[in-house]
């Protein structure tokens, strides 16, 4: 009930200030190198984690703390399930890549605290059929599909795990609040057209693409494949209310062969939806929206830090990041 969340929603309003503002993003993007980025981040909310962790460890800890705080604020099982099962997907991605591709069964990787599935179950499920049977059906099915593939690579695992992440989001996010039904559909739509655009650049036939598209977007996988066949992807994307700038960026990306501008516009749209979307003022929705905003912020920070370490120019960063 809304009244049960008055305290929790008040706390979330206070935590919004820990998200990096536009001024800080401008400073980070304009930083001369990785060292300056780390110095700037040290003065933000992330500074508390940087003293004891690598940057990747810092980001993992920051995400874990964010989720744990919100779970403590709410006993609503919709929110708890929505947060923790998404964490399970991320941990499974890290662990299965490590075991199946890098052949490191000792688990010498940084992962997040367990969600609803114990970490040792995710690890042991690769080699132990009995343990695998204790996984949720969608997890065990994906693992079996990965292992049945002719050649297991990190990109192949990412493709299967992306599909699992979509499955979990479709099931767990909309029940949190009505605004998330639109959010999930928008995000799936964006992923489908990104896959379609990249497939076009790779010269794949439309028959080869249909299995790459996820259900749950505004267009069905069959409709996306048909637009792919007819070369009307940009027109189909522009049919979605509010997607007009995204469709323009998609056309530009198709022309250039680089999808940075498309990804930037997609993420700008999603961030705006989280800020101004049709989410109730009270209830679990603002808490879940905050988790996703933090998740997106960390994703953008990972990209920023890696780009600065690689000497990427400020102009190229501005072309990619939706912030600043």
List the helices and strands and how they pair.
Layout: H1 6-15, H2 22-30, H3 34-42, H4 47-50, H5 55-73, H6 77-100, H7 119-124, H8 129-132, H9 137-147, H10 154-172, H11 179-202, H12 206-209, H13 221-230, H14 233-238, H15 244-256, H16 260-276, H17 285-309, H18 314-320
Structure write-up:
The structure is a single chain. With 324 residues, the protein is mainly α. The protein has three domains: 95 residues, Topoisomerase I, Chain A, domain 4 (Orthogonal Bundle); 101 residues; 100 residues. α2 runs antiparallel to α3, α5 packs antiparallel against α17 and α15 runs antiparallel to α16. The longest helix has 25 residues.
Q: How many discrete structural domains?
A: 3
User: How many angstroms separate the termini?
Assistant: 37 Å
- Encode the helix/strand succession as letters: HHHHHHHHHHHHHHHHHH
Main sheet summary:
none
Annotation, overall tally of beta strands: 0
Oligomer: single chain
Low-confidence parts lasting 5 or more residues at pLDDT below 50? none
Helix content percent band? 55-70%
- Determine the mean pLDDT: 89
Proportion in β-strands: under 5%
Shape summary: globular
Helix/strand class: mainly alpha
The helix count comes to: 18
Over all CA atoms, what is the radius of gyration? 20 Å
């Amino acid at each position: 009930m809304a009244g049960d969340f008055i305290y929790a929603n008040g706390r979330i309003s206070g935590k919004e200030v820990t998200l990096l503002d536009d001024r800080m993003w401008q400073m980070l993007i304009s930083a001369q190198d990785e060292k300056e980025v780390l110095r700037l981040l040290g003065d933000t909310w992330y500074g508390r984690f940087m003293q004891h962790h690598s940057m990747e460890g810092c980001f993992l800890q920051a995400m874990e703390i964010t989720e744990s705080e919100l779970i403590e604020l709410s006993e609503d099982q919709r929110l708890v399930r929505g947060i923790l099962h998404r964490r399970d997907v991320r941990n499974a991605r890290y662990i299965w890549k490590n075991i199946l591709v890098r052949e490191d069964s000792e688990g010498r990787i940084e992962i997040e605290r367990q969600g609803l599935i114990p970490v040792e179950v995710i690890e042991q499920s690769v080699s132990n059929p009995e343990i695998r049977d204790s996984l949720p059906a969608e997890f065990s099915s994906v693992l079996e599909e990965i292992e049945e593939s002719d050649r297991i690579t990190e990109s192949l695992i990412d493709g299967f795990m992306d599909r699992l992440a979509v499955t979990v989001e479709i099931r767990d996010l909309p029940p949190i609040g009505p605004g998330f039904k639109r959010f999930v559909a928008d995000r799936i739509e964006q992923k489908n057209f990104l896959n379609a655009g990249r497939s076009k650049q790779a010269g794949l036939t439309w028959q080869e693409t249909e299995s790459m598209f996820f259900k749950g977007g505004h267009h069905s996988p069959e409709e996306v494949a048909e637009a792919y066949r007819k070369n009307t992807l940009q027109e189909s994307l522009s049919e979605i209310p509010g997607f007009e700038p995204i469709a323009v960026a998609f056309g530009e990306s198709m022309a250039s062969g680089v999808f940075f501008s498309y990804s930037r516009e997609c993420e700008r749209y999603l961030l705006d939806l989280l800020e101004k979307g049709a989410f109730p003022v009270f209830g679990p929705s603002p808490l879940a929206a905050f988790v996703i905003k933090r998740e997106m912020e960390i994703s953008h920070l990972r990209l920023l830090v890696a780009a600065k370490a690689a000497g990427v120019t400020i102009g190229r960063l501005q072309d990619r990041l939706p912030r600043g």
